[in-house]
Amino acid sequence: MLNKTDIQKRLTIPSRSLKCFPPLSGDKHMVDFQVRDEDGRVWKFRIYTGKSNKKYPKPVLTKGWREFVCYKHLGTGDKVAFYMDKEDAGSVNYRVKAERAVKLFGVVYGHEPIHC
């Protein structure tokens, strides 16, 4: 579930989920990767873990994230899920799905839009 910082700056990813994203090689603390959304559009994101704490990395999505948020009109309370698909040939494809908060009788629950 997205919070205000996720909407306005970057997406914080739980450290335990880092294994589900492209691996960081050697002493690299970031990697760019492509993700396809539910409409088939390809997004380019950068995952960044910072240089200081290798034992407990704090991964965030930076590059490309705000463009995705604005394009999808996401707000606080909305949800974003990432999926990793392993192909038979050994390649990996990544998918992303955005889910808007629920609107019931004209009232939006769990969604505070941020204007881009």
From TrEMBL:
InterPro entries: B3_DNA-bd, DNA-bd_pseudobarrel_sf, LEC2-like. PROSITE patterns: B3. It is found in: Nucleus. Its main location: nucleus. Residues 1-100 form the TF-B3 domain. Keywords: DNA-binding, Nucleus, Transcription, Transcription regulation. It comes from the Eukaryota. Gene3D superfamilies: DNA-binding pseudobarrel domain. This is TF-B3 domain-containing protein. It comes from Hibiscus sabdariffa (roselle).
